[in-house]
Write a structure and sequence with these properties.
The structure holds two protein chains of two kinds. Chain A has nine helices and two strands, in the order ααααααααββα. Chain A is mainly α. Chain B has two domains: 217 residues, P-loop containing nucleotide triphosphate hydrolases (Rossmann fold, 3-Layer(aba) Sandwich), CATH 3.40.50.300; 60 residues, Alpha-Beta Plaits (2-Layer Sandwich), CATH 3.30.70. In chain B, helix 4 crosses helix 5. Classes of the chains: A mainly alpha, B alpha/beta. At the A-B interface, helix 1 and helix 4 of A face helix 3 of B. Bound molecules: adenosine-5'-diphosphate and magnesium ion (MG).
């Protein structure tokens, strides 16, 4: 990383003072802890053996609901100060517009990363506390976190672009909320349609599937291989989306 | 004298309309260059072009003696400071915290902050949140930010816009003090002639995107010397005689305006008029005001 990017990141850190952006991922994490406690406190003895599988089935759906909203709030917190203060015409004499976009992006990703790491701690902790019957598969946890981070990063790029392009933050925030709903609904869409809904990708690469027996009323979770090639294509698409977003944001007249 | 800004047919078109039209600016080093023009003339667009905030449709420019391109733009701009249109600030931070951000981006030590705050007389308010600042204070903070890193060139776009009279006076004095005290060259735009008259050493007048005048302020004043006002008892007859003598003259507000310079010619003209039976009531020289010059150059009334 060159020195001008380092300076840009330092400046972003200074800008974020008093903004309390940390409260956003912490708040959402707290909500998920409460949800997990509520879910797991009623766990039956025979379910403990597939405890992790249940979490890895349910958490991606939870992310689909929560993360689009969270990411839009973070992006908006970080970007609306630039719009309100009309700062871009000053900043762009001091740093390249693309470099500004990158620094902003990295700053937003920091919060997402902390949220992800929080999950990396919470899941094994839940397993310990509620005495899950089988050990945690590290590869499964890694895949789960990777999907979450990757989808989150793509959404961050989109939200950041929207927040920088609009004069009020209502539209970007509404997009985040709409994304939450759309992502959730996309889980019930037929596959080709669901593939188009970027907000639904938190749950698009499952390691675990569920089987619900109508007669016995028994829910069964079982492991499936992680769709690595699909995830790879998604990542490449994500990089493209980032580049497109950045190109659009950089072109904005100041 | 070397130039800190030189442009060569700098042009910016939006659609069909040339908002900035083939501008050849020349800003001498150490000058306060008043960039004058009515609202919508293209002042802000020109300054944004100079700062590389927008791309020219055509033309070249040299800043601080170097041809500007995408590679060296930021390096050159690191020796300039700018204040474009409304002030840029982070309202949730204090004045000092705002300046720290600029210091970080400019790679300038924080200890310069105290100095620039001193210059713009904002030391007392530095710890207040900028959202609580008045427009004048924001504008001065913007100037402080522009001064960080001791730039060689300052570009200020209507820095007194929206300020109260005291604020305007303070800002003008501040700007005037910069070249001698800190060796900076300053470009300051304004739609107010009187303002440029008070501050500038050089002036460029832009109208409809075109530069219609550019020279030292004293040479702008030169334009004002050659007017003799004549009151006669028969203006139309007098005009005829003046026409025969080839003296440029117009009728205005019940008097005649003569464009003659040399004393001998004035005497000869008056003598001819008297011989022609014209009664001369009054003869006096009038200094053309800057407003008149502007009117003369553009054929348009200016806002004052
Ligand atoms: N992005 C743009 N698109 C189209 N027209 C523009 C744009 N920016 C400025 N203009 C036009 O260019 C002209 C000059 O604007 P500006 O440079 O802001 O004038 P000034 O600063 O002298 O008041 C105005 O008529 C304005 O409407
Ligand atoms: Mg303007």
């Amino acid at each position: 990383m060159n020195s001008s990017t380092m300076r840009g990141l330092k400046a972003e850190r200074k800008k974020a003072r008093h903004r309390k952006v940390w409260l956003v991922p912490l708040g959402f994490l707290f909500f998920e802890v409460i949800w997990m406690l509520w879910q797991l406190s009623s766990i039956k003895e025979e379910e403990r053996i597939t405890g992790y599988l249940m979490l890895f089935y349910q958490l991606p759906i939870m992310n689909t609901i929560l993360l689009p909203a969270m990411i839009s709030v973070i992006a908006s917190r970080l970007c609306d100060m630039e719009i309100k203060g009309d700062t871009l015409k000053l900043l762009y004499t001091l740093q390249r517009p693309s470099s500004f976009f990158d620094c902003k992006f990295i700053t937003g990703i920091k919060y997402l990363l902390c949220f992800t790491i929080g999950h990396g701690i919470l899941i094994p902790a839940a397993g310990q506390i509620f005495h899950f019957g089988s050990p945690l598969k590290v590869s499964m946890l890694a895949a789960y976190l990777a999907v979450m981070l990757c989808t989150g990063m793509i959404l961050s790029a989109i939200q950041q672009t929207l927040s920088l392009m609009s004069n009020s933050q209502i539209m970007p925030l509404a997009t985040g909320l709409a994304g939450s709903f759309l992502g959730l609904f996309s889980l019930f869409f037929p596959a080709p349609a669901a593939r188009l809904i970027i907000w639904g990708y938190f749950a698009a690469f499952p390691c675990v599937k569920m089987n619900w027996d109508r007669t016995t009323k028994i829910t069964e979770f079982y492991e499936v291989p992680f769709p690595l090639s699909g995830f790879f294509i998604f990542t490449v698409t994500g990089i493209l989306i980032f580049i497109i977003c950045r190109t659009i944001a950089v072109k904005k007249e100041v | 004298m070397s130039s800190v800004i030189m442009t060569d047919s700098l042009t910016k078109q939006y659609g069909e309309k040339a908002v900035v039209n083939k501008l050849d600016l020349k800003v001498p080093s150490g000058s306060i260059y008043g960039f004058l023009g009515p609202n919508g003339a293209g002042k802000s667009t020109t300054l944004k072009l100079l700062l590389g905030l927008i791309k020219p449709t055509e033309g070249h420019m040299k800043l601080l003696g170097r041809e500007v391109n995408t590679e060296n733009r930021l390096a050159i701009l690191s020796q300039t400071g700018s204040l474009i249109e409304s002030p840029a600030y982070y309202g949730h931070l204090s004045g000092k915290e705002n300046l720290r951000i600029i210091c970080t981006l400019k790679d300038v030590p924080f200890k310069e902050i105290d100095k620039v705050l001193e210059i713009v007389r904002m030391t007392k308010q530095q710890n207040k949140k900028v959202s609580k600042y008045s427009l004048g204070m924001k504008q001065r903070l913007g100037l402080a930010a522009a001064l960080l890193g001791a730039p060689k060139l300052l570009l200020l776009d209507e820095p007194t816009n929206g300020l109260d009279p005291a604020g305007i006076q303070e800002m003008r004095e501040l700007i005037c003090s910069l070249p001698e005290q800190y060796g900076m060259s300053v470009v300051v735009s304004s739609h107010l002639l009187s303002e440029i008259d008070q501050m500038a050493t050089h002036a460029g007048i832009i109208d409809h995107g075109q530069l219609i005048f550019q020279d030292s302020l004293s040479s702008l004043h030169e334009h004002s010397k050659s007017r003799i006002i004549l009151h006669t008892d028969n203006d139309s007859e007098a005009l005829k005689i003046l026409k025969q003598l080839n003296i440029p003259a117009i009728r205005k507000d019940g008097s005649l305006l003569l464009k003659v310079q040399q004393d001998a010619l004035v005497a000869k003209t008056i003598a001819s008029l008297v011989r022609g039976g014209i009664g001369i009531l009054r003869v006096y020289e009038q200094q053309m005001s800057l407003e008149d010059i502007f009117l003369h150059l553009t054929g348009k009334q200016v806002s004052l």
